[in-house]
Amino acid sequence: MTRRYGRHGRKMNGGRTYAAPPDGRAALLRLLDQFHASYLIYREGHWTVKGKGYYGNHLLLERVYSETEKEIDDLAEMIVGSFGPGIIGSRDDSSSRWAEDFRNPVDPMRGALKAARVVRASIDDSYRSLKESGEMTTGWDDLLMSLAQEKDKHLYLLQQATAE
Asked: Which CATH class is domain 23-162?
């Protein structure tokens, strides 16, 4: 039996629609792409930040992109360990699209803050999706909680730097 889903992720069946089952794997791949895009924004901001507080913001963005690089590695390794190496190659890598959504050429700090907010929300979405799909393990719980804690730190620092 073939399952068919409409454009809004709802199963089509004789005129009735049903919500598509939660997919923890898709949420994790989206999270990985968003982490990668945020890394690109933090790194680019590190290179291009200017104005009052330039040097402090330059160093802050270096800290954030360095920590994010490690988080990306931890997340990707856990995805591969849980679902096999083929899953990474199966993704459509929408990092550049996400990066365009985050980029703020006038104020790189605001772009970095936007990226951190989106990634933080996506961590919660991934957590929820894994729980609902029954794919949550102690390891995933631990990793996603530690990623959330680090991203909360980044959000605090970026909010302080942008006075938001």
From this structure: mainly alpha
Q: Rounded distance, CA 118 to CA 151, Å?
A: 10
Q: How far apart are CA 34 and CA 26, in angstroms?
A: 12
Contacts of 160 (CB under 8 A, 6+ apart): none
The rounded distance, in Å, linking the Cα atoms of 98 and 114 is: 11
Q: What is the pLDDT of residues 101-150, one digit of tens each?
A: 777 778 999 999 999 999 999 999 999 999 999 999 999 999 999 999 99
User: How much is the pTM?
Assistant: 0.82
List 13's β-bridge partners, or say none. Answer: 16
102 vs 117: CA distance, rounded Å: 10
The ranges assigned to domains in the chain are 23-162
Q: State the amino acid at position 37 in one-letter form.
A: A
For 53, other C-beta atoms within 10 Å of its C-beta total 14
